[in-house]
Design brief:
The chain is α+β, with helices and mostly antiparallel strands. The protein has helices at 2-13, 48-62; strands at residues 17-23, 28-34, 40-46. The chain is built from 2 helices and 3 strands, in the order H-E-E-E-H. It has a 3-stranded antiparallel sheet with strand order 1-2-3, covered by helices on one side.
């Protein structure tokens, strides 16, 4: 669970931006990260991973984080 969140934080620190967080339902979703060179990383999220990542995502939005 923490590994994917750490992976997302690592890429955000290295210049990637969050393009979108998308939920298919309460248990399945994905987050799309995009670099300046428009390379994309798509990370699948399931269950508790999705909840933790969504919480992290909305905390970033509250802090004024710039999204693509």
């Amino acid at each position: 669970m923490e590994n994917k969140l750490d992976y997302i934080k690592y890429h955000l620190d290295n210049g990637y931006k969050i393009e979108k967080l998308k939920r298919k339902n309460r248990h399945i979703g994905k987050i799309i990260l995009s670099s300046e060179g428009r390379q994309k990383k798509i990370i699948a999220l399931f269950g508790e991973e999705l909840n933790k990542t969504a919480q992290f995502y909305f905390e970033l939005l509250d802090k004024g984080y710039y999204l693509l």
